Amino acid sequence: MDNINDLKALLAIPRDIVITTHRNPDGDAIGSSLGLYHFLNKGGHTVRIISPSEYPEAFSWMPDVEKIVIYDLDPEYSKELVDRADVIFCLDFNALDRIDKLGDLIEPTKSEKVMIDHHLYPEGFADYLLSDTTASSTCELVFDFIHMLDMAAELDVQIGECLFTGIVTDTGSFRYSTSAKLYRIVADLVELGVDDYKLQDLINNSMREKHLRLLGHCLHNRMEILEEYSTGLITLTKQDYEDFDIQRGDTEGIVNFLLKIKNVKMAAFITQQPTICKISLRSKGDFSVQEIAKRHFKGGGHQNASGGFSFQSLEATVGRFKKILPEYKEKLLAS
User: Fold this and answer.
1) Are residues 69 and 193 in the same domain?
2) Residue 217 and residue 83 in one domain
3) What percentage of the chain has pLDDT greater than the value 90?
4) What is the DSSP string of 217-231?
5) Hey, which bits of the chain come out as E strands?
6) What is the pLDDT of residues 34-72, one digit of tens each?
């Protein structure tokens, strides 16, 4: 961030601040938002978090998560907060269309906008940009941001727990997107007093019975292995959503189970939503699913974790996905 000194000056006096993150927020989105929220609160700012949609129940234990304003549930109050904000922090997304109607409220405001994100191709709407596609998570970048402000002394256990949550979830419990730098950050958080065992337990062992039954259904009834392309596929229909009472966040992580199969290099999870089909892609090694998401499904993300969507039926979307596999066969087999 080249203009960090200007941002330091801006934040030197109390401001009205809004923090927002992407629709269907995951652990990194919630963790980075809450971590920055607690940090800025210590600076005397008036801070509110607005999420376009509800957060998964799995993160309901996080400190002050219940204070997050949900745009879908309270658009008028969300607009009021945006209109009076001096500064708007945009976390874990690279374009205003990722926050839907909330983006339409934010774009015309005269507030100073700060983007902190690790996705490719950030749009140029922000006045201050901290973007690093090599970072494991936006939580890692929020940790960096606090250090850039020369305010590392303000880090505490509460902030650390939030940042650790985003790091753990976006790295799949340190299975990918790791680096020596990341482990040094995690060591710093543990030295602050973050209980890594407790948090891993809260993050990974808080499933309800229906979640395990849904996982069993996906693996037994909805999994298809396309051996020729080293690819695994799981699909869910609207009927599945009704039968298992699937709510926001209930399918988180299911796609990763496909990568546990030795010869599967790419995993796809395609779900039938009310108006679209959602596609989640994961991969091992050097094979990039980001290219597939961007070129074929109006999406994007990271090399090993990306997503997109389709307006076609579930059957047509699955057919389209399978049709493009020959194009990537050589890369899949080589990765």
Assistant:
1) yes
2) no
3) 86
4) HHHHHSEEEEGGGTE
5) 16-21, 46-51, 69-70, 87-91, 112-117, 128-131, 223-226, 231-236, 266-272, 277-283, 300-301, 305-310
6) 999 999 999 999 999 999 999 988 899 999 999 999 999
Q: Go through the chain and tell me how many residues it has.
A: 335
CA distance 102 to 90: 11
- Using pLDDT thresholds of 50, 70 and 90, give the confidence band for residue 252: confident
SS3 49: strand
pLDDT tens column, 267-278: 999 999 999 999
Q: Look up tokens 């020369």; give the residue.
A: 150
Quick one: 140 and 42 in the same domain?
yes
pTM of the model: 0.88
Return the bridge partners of 306, or none: 281, 301
Residues 215 and 235 placed together within one structural domain of the fold: yes
Each residue's pLDDT tens digit, 87-108: 999 999 999 988 989 999 999 9
CATH of the domain at 234: 3.10.310.30
pLDDT digits (tens, 9 = 90+) for 114-140: 999 998 889 989 999 999 999 999 999
Instruction: State how far the Cα of 160 lies from the Cα of 195, in Å rounded to an integer.
Output: 10
Coil, helix or strand at residue 190 = helix
Residues 193, 71, single domain; the answer is yes
CATH number at residue 25: 3.90.1640.10
**Among residues 183, 204, 225, which one ends one of the domains?**
204
Would you tell me how many other CB atoms lie within 10 Å of the CB of residue 130? 22
Q: What's the number of domains the chain is made of?
A: 2
Residue 12 lies in domain: 4-204
